[in-house]
Amino acid sequence: MSNDQGAIRCLVAKVGLDGHDRGAHVVARAFRDAGFEVIYSGLHKAPDEIVQAAVQEDVDVLGISILSGAHDTLVPKVMNGLEEYDAKSDTLVLVGGVIPEEDRDDLYDEGVAAIFGPGTSIEETVEFVRTNAPER
């Protein structure tokens, strides 16, 4: 499912009180270098702020970076918000960060398409987006 209607639009978001944004910046830069349109949320965004940005910017991909350990509460809030705006089915949601194996299935059940942990190559992430971004 590649996006043939111009550049893939991506929102790279930092949710919650997590102040570690180096990885999010690396991903945002790699996405730009790959030709994607990238919006970066900045730090300390509430789930509803991320949903609003994703909907208003009409993104194809939402990358959530979270290292705080609150993924099990914050990511479902984002997914529920996307569903409320009828944007869940046409937004590829990725999660990056330290997500324990035992929590991953719950995030997939919420609708997360992929989880990328430490050590994932940027090339793998870019290729996943190119292959799976919804068509416009």
From TrEMBL:
Lineage: Archaea, Methanobacteriati, Methanobacteriota, Stenosarchaea group, Halobacteria
UniProt-listed Pfam families: B12-binding
Nucleotidyltransferase is among the record's keywords: no
GO molecular function: cobalamin binding; isomerase activity; metal ion binding
Residue ranges of domain B12-binding in the record: 7-136
Name under which the protein is recorded: Cobalamin B12-binding domain-containing protein
Family affiliation: Belongs to the methylamine corrinoid protein family.
Domain of life where this protein originates: Archaea
Entry keyword set: Cobalamin, Cobalt, Isomerase, Metal-binding
InterPro entries on file: Acid_CoA_mut_C, Cobalamin-bd, Cobalamin-bd_sf
Cofactor(s) named in the record: adenosylcob(III)alamin
Metal-binding listed as a keyword: yes
